[in-house]
Design brief:
Elements: E1 2-5, E2 15-19, E3 33-37, E4 42-44, H1 53-62, E5 66-72, E6 82-86, E7 92-94, E8 98-104, E9 111-113, H2 122-131, E10 135-142, E11 152-156, E12 162-164, E13 168-174, E14 181-184, E15 187-188, E16 197-203, E17 206-213, E18 220-221, E19 224-227, E20 230-237, E21 240-248, E22 253-259
Parallel strand pairs: 1-3, 5-8, 10-13
Antiparallel strand pairs: 2-3, 4-7, 6-8, 9-12, 11-13, 14-19, 15-18, 16-17, 16-20, 20-21, 21-22
Length: 265
Amino acid sequence: MEETVYSDEYEKGVICEQKPKYPKTVKKGAEVKIKVSSGAQKITIPDFSNQEATQVYAELKNMGLEYTESRINHPSISSGYVIKTEPTKGSEVKAGTTVTVYVSLGAQTVMKQVPDVTGINVDDAKRILESHGLKVGEVTLDETSNEPYGTVLAQDPAEGNMAATGTFVNLTVSKGDMVISRLVITVPMPSSIDREVTVSAYLNDMEIRRETINPKNTTSWKPSFSGDGIGRVKIYIDDEIYMEYIVDFDEGIHEIDSDYSQDFR
């Protein structure tokens, strides 16, 4: 009688066990049971990318594999999530093999020196900041300055400071002699979201306000805007577009242009 079994010791096709064992004497014609090796058991490595590391470790253990962890930076995979494994996905390995799991530390923090953008137009300031990997934060109008409209009077962080890539630089700009009107938009919040989110308001692609709220507890958000003529307001939740409005400062009115709120329910 023959039985096929996995064996790490014997190659495929080799008898790895027999009963009775040698050198026992048996009668002629007696049945001898043998086990034939089918080779070492092979386990296929799944694709673990973008999965939470502790869950991956548990799954590897359940599969009969060992693991070792290596933590590295990754530009898009969140901290604590798997980037790749070695051996790679689809590889066949023996039971007991140690798999190296590469786990993300998140994006590497790159520090940039903040440039001086005072004394220039806010649009030029935005381009310079973006070329340095920085972003324009809140823009505040100074109504007492005699500088031309849009001239950057102050910035925070100031020139020469070191800031991480993506840092928001808040600007104070001159109102000049432009007639300024103020307008408040009441933005309804998605009450189905019960956690802290970051909401931000942009006027003509310039950030005007940024705040952390819980929509479950804050039914509406009321950012205010200053300007003249026609403008476009965009509202974001966690940097995802939520609402767009067309505003008319001269008439003091606004209307919804695009509504993406259904994506946040």
